[in-house]
Design brief:
alpha/beta; 15 helices; globular; Spore Coat Polysaccharide Biosynthesis Protein SpsA, Chain A; single chain; about 425 residues; twelve-stranded mixed beta sheet
């Protein structure tokens, strides 16, 4: 398999302005061979007209606009869009860019440099965040080493059973570059590219059953914002956005693929663990381990504690107590302690996960926070003042003890890589 071209697929629904920003973040990068396909799944006429008109007036031969015959639920839309993409383009590598995300300047060139050297590997990378649901707007800039790591798939699958979901290393399709052949392999084994509730995490665990390892580039290449329009984040905070409510209208309620007293799909733990369990059930050839139910309860409790809606938080915590009793009380105390120790509680799991795979020598602040009056100011600052590289992390093999799951030093390895330019 050889690299020939990078294609960026942008699926969107009723968010024309955001999709336009995503398109511009790609097409303004002229230092790499790239094309863009926008798949417009909108249901609102004004959004459809606005985005289609923008794409037509731009008159850029690298840009293609497509629209399904009728609006589709999210996973079906992702499937349809990728199927059309594979038919329309011969690009060897595809990355899916959500409409709420934008690439940083020169990010695509860095992606192309890596996949040129490792064309058969899935490549994941980090991101910065703009939390603009409230004012002041918060810019969270991730610390980064600029190092390239190879991480065994079996290790990431094992971590999922312990509620360590290793974001952003997990190849959750929305921040990864995927070889065309891997998509074919996923469809051949599972019947579709994406299925179940969350297409991103569903693909992550599906692909991990088919590849021996993934590559992680420890540098933020994208930025996500428009938090108030998020499906997942708003649901996690207990106040679903109109986009989340629109998603739920097209979701057929059903039992999650594991026992839970809180069948709330927008809870991070539920959503991610559901996809792991779903793939575990469907993957007949893979002997994937079961998950740790005690750790599941602790992670679920931590999710509920982050709810901003006090009434809903109380209802959820009471339901957990009624189902688990003393086990819940212990989990609640543990979650409160973890939250108190973390300046950014929503990123606690990421910090712990990075420590466990030995990217850092000791606990550290993984994000630099700054505050602004508007989203535009935060995005502009992030471009002009990126957080500086910190390559001084210790050798990975010296920190294998962070994770009891690691028995051999070949779970994670550093790749000798120096970016050009």
């Amino acid at each position: 398999m050889a690299f020939n071209k990078l294609l960026v697929l942008i699926p969107t629904r009723n968010r024309a302005e955001l999709a336009i920003n995503a398109v511009n973040s790609v097409l303004t990068q002229t230092d790499c061979n790239v094309e863009v396909i926008v798949s417009d799944n909108s249901t609102e006429e004004v959004e459809l007209i606005s985005l289609k008109q923008f794409c037509e007036e731009l008159q850029d031969e690298r840009l293609h606009y497509i629209k399904p015959p009728s609006p589709l639920p999210m996973s079906k839309h992702f499937n349809w869009a990728l199927e059309q993409t594979l038919q329309l383009s011969s690009a060897s590598h595809i990355t899916i860019l959500p409409d709420r995300w934008v690439f940083k300047p020169h990010a695509l060139r860095e992606i192309v440099e890596i996949v040129n050297q490792y064309p058969e590997k899935i490549l994941s990378y980090s991101w910065d965040s703009v939390d603009d649901e409230r004012v002041p707007v918060k810019l969270l800039q991730a610390a980064w080493t600029g190092k390239l790591f190879e991480v065994k798939s079996s290790y990431l699958l094992d971590l999922a059973t312990q509620m360590s979901f290793t974001l952003p290393i997990l190849p959750a399709v929305l921040h990864v570059c995927v070889p065309r052949e891997v998509y074919h392999q996923v469809r051949q084994k599972y019947g579709t590219y994406f299925t179940s509730i969350s297409p991103d995490y569903n693909f992550a665990y599906s692909s991990l059953t088919l590849v021996s390892s993934v590559i992680y580039y420890d540098k933020p290449l994208i930025v996500h914002y428009a938090t108030a329009r998020s499906q997942g984040i708003s649901g996690m905070r207990g106040v679903p956005s109109r986009d989340a409510l629109d998603f739920l209208k097209h979701y057929t309620p059903g039992r999650l693929s594991f026992d839970t007293p809180l069948p709330v799909i927008h809870l991070m733990t539920n959503a991610m663990l559901h996809e792991y369990c779903y793939v575990r059930q469907k993957s007949e050839a893979s002997n994937l381990p079961d998950f740790d139910r005690e750790k599941y309860l602790s992670a679920l409790t931590a999710d509920v504690i982050l709810f901003r809606d006090a009434k809903r938080k109380r209802e959820m915590l009471l339901k957990l107590y009624k189902n688990y009793g003393m086990k819940f009380l212990k989990s609640y105390a543990r979650a409160q302690i973890d939250q108190a120790r973390s300046k950014f509680p929503i990123r606690t799991r990421l910090r712990q996960a990075l420590q466990k795979i030995a990217l850092i020598k000791e606990p550290m602040n993984l994000q630099l926070e700054k505050r602004f009056d508007t989203t535009a100011e935060a995005l502009d600052y992030n471009i002009r003042h990126p957080q500086k590289q910190n390559p001084s992390f210790e050798n990975i093999e010296g920190w294998l003890g962070f994770n009891p799951l690691i028995e051999e030093s070949n779970k994670v390895s550093v790749i000798d890589y120096e970016p050009h330019g």
